[in-house]
Every structure is written in C-alpha cells, then in structure tokens.
Amino acid sequence: MADTSKKKAKIKISGMNCASCAVNIEKSLRKLEGVDEAQVNLNVEEADVEYDSSKLQLQDLENAVTKTGYSVVNEKVTLKVGGMTCAMCVKAIEDVLGKLDGISQVNVNLASEKAYVTYNPKLTSIQEMKEAIEELGYQYLGVEGEDTDDLEEKIREKDLKSKRNRFIVGFAFSIPLFILMYANIMLPFPMPYFMLIVTIIPFIYVSYPIFTAAIRALRNGLLDMDVMYSLGIGVAYISSLLGTFQIVLTPEFMFYDTALMLAAFLMLGRYLEARAKGNTSTAIKKLIGMQPKTATVVRNNQELEIRIEEVEKGDLVVVKPGEKIPADGIVEKGESYVDESAITGEPLPVYKDKDKTVVGGTINQNGILNFRATKIGKDTVLAQIIKLVEVAQGSKPPVQRVADRAVSYFIPTILTIALVSFLIWYFILASTLLFALTVLISILVVACPCALGLATPTAVTVGIGRGAELGILVKNGEALEISEKISTVLFDKTGTLTKGKPEVTDIISLKTGDDNLLKIAASVEKNSEHPLAQATVNKAEAKKIELIKTRKFTSFGGKGVKAVLDNQGNNNEIIIGNRKLFEENSLTITSEIEEELLRLENEGKTAIIIGSSPEILGIIAVADTLKETTKKAIQELKDMKLGVAMITGDNSRTAHAIAGQIGIENVISEVLPQDKAFEVKKLQDEGETVAFVGDGINDAPALAQADVGIAIGSGTDIAIESGDIVLIKDDLVDSVAGVQLSRKVMGRIKLNIFWAFAYNAVLIPVAAGILYPTFGITFQPEYAGLAMALSSVTVVSLSLLLKGYLPPAKKNLS
C-alpha cells in the first residue's frame, strides 16, 4: 500500500542570482526533519522537494526558504463561501483546504463569508478548492473580483427568505400549542396525538436544514453547532414520540411544542445573524460600487463608450460632469472640481486642471476633463485600496487564537457536561426522568459557540471598513492588536511633522555677493533631490539667476554634497553641507561663523554652509514650516498618555527649536537616513512599543522595524505597500485617529469575546440545574433557545456599532 504521507512540492523562488544561492536553499530545506530530497533549479527558479506531510507542512518548507533570505512566489485568492453558520464551519473549511497539496495558508472569515487562500498554482487549482468546499456541503460562490455579485445576492436573499419562512411557521404552530399546554384546556381527543399530528409536518419543515447540516458534519468527522442542536431538538421530539405511544416513556414527556419552538428560535437567530452579517461588509461593497462600468475614450479622433475592462494605459479619457472617473491619470485638458471624499475622506471637492492627477472611482462635478490614463484595472489606487481592505478583513489578530482554541474544545465539552448532568440528576440526585431530560435538552440548546466564532471577525470586518471610509487603511489584524499596546510614537520630521517644502529664509555671504553665493550653491544643488537642495534651486529660479554647469558631483548621505563648477579651476571644488562634512574636509569653522550658525539654528532654521577650500564662502538658511494639524496631533497623543518623540537629520539646536514649537521633549537629532531603523530598535530595546510615523517612501526601513509602521500619504498619491497602517490624507491627526480606531476595534473584540464567554459560563450551569437545589430555579428549553438565538445577534450588533465610530481626534476639527 502506498504511503500517502509522502508528497512532492514545487516551490517558485525569487531572488536567486548564482549557484551558491541554490545550494544555500537546498541545505536549508534538507535540514528540516521530514524532507527526503530537495533540488533547486536556478534557471527556472524552482525548488522540487520530496517530504513527509505527517512531519511538516508546505508552510514549513516555504518558511525555510524565506529564512534563507529569498522570496517564495505564491498566488492569493479570495473565495466566496455560502452556508457557514458557526465557528466550526470555519474550522472545517480551513482544515479541508489546508489539506490540499500546494495550499500554504487559509483564513476563513465567518462575518464576510470569504476564504482567503495563499496557494501554489503548480500544485493545486481553484477548481480543486471549489470541489473541496462543495464536498463539505457548503456553497462555492466564486472568486472575489469576478462578476458574481448578482448570484451572491440572489443566494443570500433566497437563504434569508427560507430562514424567515421557517421561523414564522415554527412560531405559528409552537406558540399556540405552548399556550394550550399551560392553559390546561381539555380537548375531546388525546392531547399527545393532537400535538403529534399538528407538529409533525412543521417540525420536519423547520428543522430539515438543521438535521441535514448535522448529518453532513458527522459524515465529515466534525462536531459543530448543528450536531449539538440536532441532539437537543431530536431528543425532545423523539422523547415526545415515545411518550405518545408509551414506549418506555409516559405521556407526560410532551416536548412537541418545545422541539418545534427550539428549531424556530435557531432559524430566527440565524436569520437575524445573516441580516446583520450582511451589513458588516457595506464598506467594501461601497468601495467596489465606486468602480464605473463604462468609460468614454478618444480613438481615431472619435469619442467611444467602452467597457471599463477595455480601457488601455495611455488612452485619452473624457469625463463629463456627474460621471465617475474610470482610471488613474493626468489631466491634459479641461478644469473641474472632483469629489474624492470616498477615497480620502476629505469632504471638500478638489480643483483639477492641466497636469493634475485624477483617481479612478472619484466623481467629476462640474466641468469636462480630458485625461491620459496612467493606471488601469488592478493597478489603480481604488483597486489597491479594495484589495488591501479585503486582505485586512480576512486577517486574524492574535487574540482570536484564544477564541479558536476555545471553539475546538467547546462542543465535546458541552456534550460531556450535558450527559454528565443527566446522569447526576437521574441516577445520583434521584430526580425524575422528565427533569433530567429537560436539563439535557436545555444544555444542548443554550450552549453557543457561534458567538465566540463571530466575536473577532465581525469587529475586524466592520472596524477596518470604517477605517477605509475615514481614509485610514489598517493592513492586518496584528496591527490592530499591537496598536493597543503602543507606548511611544516616533515621528520623522521632514515631510511628516513639517510640510516637506522648505524655503530659503537667509543668505549670508562672507566672500562674495548674496546672489553670487546663491548662484554657486544652486548650481551644485540642482544635481540633488534633497528637499533642502530643491529649496535653494527654487530660490535661484525665483530670482531668475542663471546657473552654472557642474561636474564630479558627489553626495554624502546626511552630510552634504560636492561638485566642481565648469567655470572654475579643477582644484576649486565647492562643498555644501553641515559641520560634519566640513570637518571631514579640514575646513575650519571660525567662532564668528559658529555664532551665526547657532543664531539660525536657535530660530529653528537649517543652516547650510557653502565653502571652497580653503575658505568658507557663506551660509544659506532654510526653514520648513509645520503642518497645520501637527500641534493638535501631538497634544492628542499626549492626552492619551503616550510618549512622543521626533527623529531628524537636523543638528540638535535646530531640531529642539522645531520640537519646542509643538511640545515634543524627546528629540533624536543628527540621524542619517539609514540609521533611523537603528534608533527605533534602540527604543524597543528599552522596552518601548514603538509606532513610527513616516512618509512611506523614504522611511521604509524604520516603518518595517517599528512595532507599528504608520505611512502618511498625500491625498491620492499613496504608497499602499508601506507601513502597517496607511493614511491616505497628508494629515497628522489621522495618525492619532488610526491608533484610536485600532484601540476601539480591539476593545470591541474583547467585549465580544467577554460576552461570548460570559454568556456560556453563566447560562450553561443554570441550564444544568445548579440553581435548582437552593432557589428552585430551572432553565426551560424554550428560554434556553431564545437566549441562544440572541447571543450571536448581540455580538454582531455590538460590532455593527463600530460603523458609526468617529475617533475623538477627528471630532471638532475646524
């Protein structure tokens, strides 16, 4: 018989550039226990691995490759799944998909009813995933992004209608019978037979989905909510049948109305839960709905209306008033105001004219715009935001592991409690069989793992969606959880606290005229992309100074630049920068020059020294203005009892002068760009949980090193891939709002989990009869069913309250 645990994997790898790379990966893979053979083909960039699946998984192989310093190339897909009802359904789908060869990661979100799968397309396919889902008995509704919304909506409406009809029928028959039973109304025929005849067809109709789901779960070797509930209502109805025909039991065992009412309560609970769950994803549906279906393009000097999928990069697109912009691009003709609120959260329309950028999904208001498409389809800002939000909604914060572990033990524990309670009451405490059976049924129907399963995903889905509406993109569940533990927020200065557009404020010439000093400095600085250099060049252009050509330009990161002017001798090199650069080049800074430098720095200006060996020619001072919301953002963080620090390449005096204006005491100055991540690490080593706020482009290492990286954008020009939290607007208040939103979502998750645990911890013992000996209180199955129905609805409703949450930092903004 073949050993089914032996498997082969083909892993696509990127980043290899020589034979030693392949050898290193092979060694790393062969070290793993369970790997029989590993061969890496450098030409096709693939690793062929034979391994024992009982000892390790595909994820372990991929981790070994990434730890060696290379990247694994996988594909990601989001599958829509219908028919999930509880946390055990999630576990079943995750388990069955996880067993397929080639699938390295599966996350199923019960709230959004989606499975987020990372897979190797060489080993498995979407078709195989579809078959695995359907074999479990769930509905495969297609891939996210495919045009299956109508089908999905039809199935959802059909499911809601079915649940609604079933609970209406259940209550329509069970409530009158319940009243009849307790009113002691005498009938001209035996009550048991009457109850059987009246309930048999409604009971089959209402409970059919419950029993079929239970049978499906048992067939797949699973214990889920349906199995447990089926046992409860099944025991109730079968006991009634035995009592009616006096087989073992007597006619006093009449649970017909109870069994039907319990089935109706479950249908009611699932109906309300399904309706509420449908509202958790409104934010992502709103984003998807922003994408227009058609576009007007100019081809062969004619305007043509085409489907959005047919728009090509480089097309000239025409957008009329009231129409949605179909792609990202640059305006070539026309002027108008564009409503970008759905993407940026900014309520005021933005003026657009020639050379301004426009973003797909935003609404043109009052003029005609002709723009050249630069990004289309999945590359547009809107498409990237949608993808980011979808992936984030499918992620699991570490706190969910507690709930997942609890759910895996939940049902076996409840079945054990129910059976032990029955045995204790009947055999040890000598109660009646009717009482013991009532206890058994109450325990089986009151216990609810669904609330535990919904506690985290509903809050994550609603919270991340709300963030997207506010222009705050939280990229994963882990960022939510860590944000709650932040102790220090570290801000980059240039472009984050300040506008990043410095201007020349002072020109102090020592050996030549002011204009000539500016001419020399700007001629060298025009080769640099540094904001301070650009300010010098801008000043020269504003004064219409003609610049000189340069050669041998050299940049010294964080210190300055050098170059030789074409109209000077070869040995007359111009040096521009800070004290460090001049010290390294043996150029003496006199006490008079130092005094001038200190004066400028104490005013919060950056002093740039210009020299040519052996003398200093002069000083140019540049200042960068603070953003309007910087002071408010810093104060908000202080009010939250968080430490605030600033990091900059400026010298200590300049840095402290700027920090003093906004109330920051902790200043880390004279830091080279490549050392920012090291400074973050130093704070972490001191026990701080650090959030780093930077521009997402120049601060990538520091953003990655921080516990939470917050990348601040500038309107629709954002770096989606950077940071754990991405802010669409160039507004520091949003960095505070991002932390506040994360804390609110985590607070709601904890409240949900507490409610779910507390509900079960309190009501299961009551259902088991713990209060009966002392207070004579019992928990009737009907009330147990009602409590069960309300538990999940309560959790989902608590999460839905996040839809209206507005972070305090964003309130009362003028």
In brief:
The chain has 814 residues and is an alpha+beta fold. The chain is built from 27 helices and 30 strands. Helix 22 links the parallel strand 26 and strand 27.
Architecture overview:
The protein is of the alpha+beta class. The protein contains 27 helices and 30 strands. It has a 7-stranded mixed β-sheet with strand order 18-30-29-28-19-26-27, with helices on both faces. Helix 7 (225-244) runs antiparallel to helix 13 and helix 21 runs parallel beside helix 25 (733-767). The longest helix has 35 residues, at 149-183.
Q: Which secondary structure elements does this structure contain, and how are they paired or packed?
A:
Elements: E1 6-14, H1 19-30, E2 35-41, E3 46-52, H2 58-67, E4 71-72, E5 75-82, H3 87-98, E6 103-109, E7 114-119, H4 126-136, E8 139-143, H5 149-183, H6 191-219, H7 225-244, H8 256-280, H9 282-289, E9 294-299, E10 302-307, E11 316-319, E12 328-333, E13 336-339, H10 341-344, E14 350-352, E15 357-358, E16 363-364, E17 369-375, H11 381-394, H12 400-428, H13 433-446, H14 450-469, E18 472-474, H15 477-483, E19 488-492, H16 493-497, E20 503-509, H17 514-525, H18 531-542, E21 550-556, E22 560-565, E23 573-577, H19 579-584, H20 591-602, E24 606-612, E25 615-623, H21 630-639, E26 643-647, H22 652-662, E27 666-668, H23 676-685, E28 690-694, H24 700-705, E29 708-712, E30 725-727, H25 733-767, H26 772-775, H27 781-800
Parallel strand pairs: 19-26, 19-28, 26-27, 28-29, 29-30
Antiparallel strand pairs: 1-3, 1-4, 2-3, 5-7, 5-8, 6-7, 9-10, 9-11, 11-17, 12-15, 12-17, 13-14, 13-16, 18-30, 20-25, 21-22, 22-23, 23-24, 24-25
